[in-house]
Amino acid sequence: MLRIAVPNKGTLSQPASQMLRDAGYRQRTDPKDLACRDEANHVEFFYLRPRDIATYVGSGDLDLGITGRDLLVDSGVPASEVLDLNFGGATFRWAAPADSDITADAIGGRRIATAYPGVVERYLAERELKADVVRLDGAVENAVRLGVADLIADVVETGATLRQAGLVTFGEPLLRSSAILIGRPDEEAAGAAQLVRRLQGVLVARSYVMLAYDVRADLLDEATGLTPGFESPTVSPLHREGWVAVQAMVPRRDVHRIMDELYELGARAILVTDIANCRL
Ligand SMILES: Nc1ncnc2c1ncn2[C@@H]1O[C@H](COP(=O)(O)OP(=O)(O)OP(=O)(O)O)[C@@H](O)[C@H]1O
Ligand SMILES: O=P(O)(O)OC[C@H]1O[C@H](OP(=O)(O)OP(=O)(O)O)[C@H](O)[C@@H]1O
Ligand SMILES: [Mg+2]
C-alpha cells in the first residue's frame, strides 16, 4: 500500500485534500481524523503538520507527501520535489519597517526573526554572511515593533499582514513557494507513478478547457493557428459543404480572447466545456 502524507491543518490542508479527491482518492470526512485508507486504490493517507511532512518522507517512513516548497527547503531533509501542484503559492521575503535603512546588501550582523530558520541560514551561508537568526513560531510580523529583531523573513501572500505591521519588503524573494508533491530522491515507490499521473491529470483539467467550433475549410489553417491544441486539433467534416468542425484544448486563461478571435475570423458555434479529468 502506498503511504502518503497530507497537511492536516493550515493553508495547504483543504486544497491538498480537494486535489486528491479530484484525482479519485478517498479523503477523510472529519478534519480531526489522522489517517484514511483508500482500499480500492491501495493508498493510505496520513494527516500531518505540513512542517513535519518532509521528515516522514525523507526518512522513508512515508512514500510521498504534499507540503510547501519553502517547508521542504527549511527542513533540510533529503526529500525531493516530484510535482508542482499549483496551489498555495506564496513568496518568502525580507521585510523591515518602512523607515528602516536595511537593504538586501546589509543583512549581515542584523537580528532576523523568522519561522523558517533553515531557509534563512541557507541564504546566509551561501553568501558567507553572519547574522543573528531569531526563531519564532508565527506572527513574525510583530517581532520588529516588539524589539526582538531588526528585520523579518516570512511568507508573503497578499502582503496584508506586512502592511498592517508597518513593514515593507525589500530585495529579491529568497524563494517562490507553492504546494508540491515530494518523494525520496532516486526512489520510486510501487504505485507512485499512477498517483503522479492522476495528479497531472487534475492539473491539466484545471488549467485547460475544451473548445469546439465550426469554421470554413479555407480558414482552417488560420483557425487552428489560434487553437493548436495540446498535440494537434481534431478536425471533422460537417454536413454543410465547405465547413469543418474543430476540437482543441486551450489554456483556460486565454479562452475568451481566443473565442473573440475565432468569431472575428468567421468561426461559429464556438462552445467551451470544462475537462473533468484527463490522461494525456
Ligand atoms: N497566506 C499564507 N500564509 C501562510 N502560509 C501560506 C500562505 N499561502 C501559502 N502558504 C504556504 O503554506 C505553508 C505553510 O503552511 P502552515 O500550515 O505551516 O502554515 P499556515 O497555513 O500559516 O497555518 P498555521 O500558521 O495556522 O499553522 C507554506 O508552504 C507556505 O508557503
Ligand atoms: O501576505 P498575507 O496574505 O498577509 O499572508 C502571509 C501571512 O499569513 C501567514 O500568517 P498566519 O495568519 O498563518 O499566522 P502565523 O504567522 O501565526 O502563521 C504568514 O505567516 C504571513 O504572516
Ligand atoms: Mg501561519
Automatic annotation (TrEMBL):
Q: Which residues form the Histidine biosynthesis HisG C-terminal domain?
A: 205-277
Keyword Cytoplasm found? yes
EC primary class: transferase
Q: What is its EC number?
A: 2.4.2.17
Gene Ontology MF term list: ATP binding; ATP phosphoribosyltransferase activity; magnesium ion binding
Q: Which UniProt keywords apply?
A: Amino-acid biosynthesis, ATP-binding, Cytoplasm, Glycosyltransferase, Histidine biosynthesis, Magnesium, Metal-binding, Nucleotide-binding, Transferase
Keyword field contains Mitochondrion? no
User: Cellular component per GO?
Assistant: cytoplasm
Where found in the cell? Answer: Cytoplasm
Activity regulation (record text)? Feedback inhibited by histidine.
User: InterPro entries annotated for this entry?
Assistant: ATP-PRT_HisG_long, ATP_PRibTrfase_cat, ATP_PRibTrfase_CS, ATP_PRibTrfase_HisG, HisG_C, N-reg_PII-like_a/b, N-reg_PII/ATP_PRibTrfase_C
PROSITE patterns attached to this UniProt entry: ATP_P_PHORIBOSYLTR
Q: In which pathway does it act?
A: Amino-acid biosynthesis; L-histidine biosynthesis; L-histidine from 5-phospho-alpha-D-ribose 1-diphosphate: step 1/9
Which processes are annotated in GO (biological process)?
L-histidine biosynthetic process
Needed co-factor(s): Mg(2+)
| Main localization category | cytoplasm
Q: Which reaction does it catalyse?
A: 1-(5-phospho-beta-D-ribosyl)-ATP + diphosphate = 5-phospho-alpha-D-ribose 1-diphosphate + ATP
Family from the record = Belongs to the ATP phosphoribosyltransferase family. Long subfamily.
Listed HAMAP family: HisG_Long
What this chain does, per the entry, is described as: Catalyzes the condensation of ATP and 5-phosphoribose 1-diphosphate to form N'-(5'-phosphoribosyl)-ATP (PR-ATP). Has a crucial role in the pathway because the rate of histidine biosynthesis seems to be controlled primarily by regulation of HisG enzymatic activity.
Q: What is this protein called?
A: ATP phosphoribosyltransferase
> Which species is this record about?
Paractinoplanes atraurantiacus
Q: What is the lineage of its organism?
A: Bacteria, Bacillati, Actinomycetota, Actinomycetes, Micromonosporales
